[in-house]
Amino acid sequence: MKRSLWIVILIVVLAGFAGFQQYSSWSLNKPKGNAEGRSEEASEGQSGGRPQGRSGGRSQGQSGRSGAVPVTVATVIQKSMPVQLTATGTVEAYATVSIRAQVGGVITKVSFTQGQDVKQGDPLFTIDPRPLEAALKQAEANLQRDTAQLQNSREQARRYAELVKKQYVSQEQFDQIKTNADALESVVDADKAAVENAKVQLSYCYIFAPVDGRTGSLQLNQGNLVRTNDATPLVVINQVNPIYVTFSLPEGNLPEIKARMAQATLKVLAILPQSPDNPEQGTLTFVDNAVDATTGTIKFKGTFANAGRRLWPGQFVKVLLNLSEQPNAVVIPFQAIQSGQDTQLVFVVKPDRTVEVRPIVVSRTLNGEAIVEKGLKPGETIVTDGQFLLSQGTRVQIKKGAES
User: Fold this and answer.
1) CA-to-CA distance for 94 and 240, rounded, in angstroms?
2) Which of these, 31, 116, 151, 267, has the minimum number of CB atoms within 10 Å of its CB?
């Protein structure tokens, strides 16, 4: 009995579960279909209604008004442009002097600080002069002694000359006295030379600046023992006013440079990386006497006053050598040029505000400007920015304040 009851309950539960599943499936499908229908109807109604028409018209109007491409333009100008050669140069001291001791001894005084500017003749070092002062005194004493002996010998020779005439002494005795006097003259001359040498040696104890310049690092301080002509200099002085800039150019430029130098002094510009708009100006003063066979270049030097000391030995600079001036050159900004398959192009803005793609021939560039040989006339307007959106006949809109 109980078993039959449980079977009936199980059948009822299964039947109820199956019915619930069917109802759930039907209820979910029915609302979805209605929502889709209402959505489609609403969509169709909005598409066919007046609001959509207003929106579409407004969009079309905006598209029509924004058809012009905004660009930046510049005017083709005509002016004189320098003909220049470009190279990388190295700044070199006008003169470099290594100070070395010419006598040995202890450094008793250093009269400058390292890195100080000195003038020609300024004292630098003092080496203990006492040994050489004693040597000078000794040489002077020898000179005085031999000078006294010479005077005595000359007096004897004078007396014997009178005696030999009266035949009171033999000729041989007179000749011996005269020979002694002549020998003492040579001894005195040697003593004078010894005194001069002692003075020179004593002067080496006092070292002075041979040129105007700037001192470098001090290698030996006061109290150190220095040797004669030591391999390590006491200090190095670099003359930086004026100063050299050394650079090399291909040997093919040499004939033109020599021809220009025969006509006038050539100007050289040294451009520092940190201030490219304010170059230092100098003149070409040196052409090497041989071409470097390994590189095919020749060395040049420009001399610069360097009043502001912006150039410093060992510095790298960009060098521009001015050969001449090209009058009435047609010039445009370099950024206006576009590259085609076989040529260079620019976009020329016509009076109706459309652009024309025009090929040009550029001879050279200088300081962000291009010199055009063919293809443009002064006064024409060209596009300098915004070219990537342009083609032949595109209408453009010039940005306000962007025309140069």
Assistant:
1) 6
2) 31
